[in-house]
Amino acid sequence: MNDALTFLVATLIDLYLIVILLRVWMQLVKADYYNPVSQFVVKATQPVVGILRKAIPSAGRLDTASLVFAIIIGVLKAAALFSLNGYGVPLLPVIIQGILFTVSSLLSMLFWILIIRAILSWFSQGYNPMEAMLHQLTEPLLAPVRRIIPPLGGLDLSVLVVIIVLQFLRILIGV
């Protein structure tokens, strides 16, 4: 029963954390605000981010209010998991684990966005708002790699290189 509850809590928090991190990433890469995906993300996060923005201004393109909200959600996840597993809620370990959860979720989100973009590219049949959004979200990661490793015979290896780097980083932080 405890494993099932831990799974449910972790999954629900992770899903919302990814939506918050998607908002941070969309603003960083200047994704189309009027895309339906963007509109969903903004509407799902605006109640809290709107309040936080009154106290935490953006730093250039970095949406610091959303980033702080994501870290808070990561810390809440750590506190919930510590508590569910009977460890109490030690402050410093919970904060560190919460930040690691947030970074891991960001890396995981980017990994899945790249995978989905790669798969959709095989079946692309013209303009699609979802595909356009995926392109906007991944191109800042892929373009620098393409400058170093150009497409070989029509095969773009940049996606593979970025996926390997993201997975390496996830393993490195150990979450």
Automatic annotation (TrEMBL):
Keyword terms: Membrane, Transmembrane, Transmembrane helix
A cellular-component GO term for this protein: membrane
Pfam families, per the entry: CCB3_YggT
Membrane spanning residue stretches: 6-25, 62-82, 94-120, 154-173
InterPro entries xrefs: CCB3/YggT
Sequence similarity: Belongs to the YggT family.
Protein name according to UniProt: YggT family protein
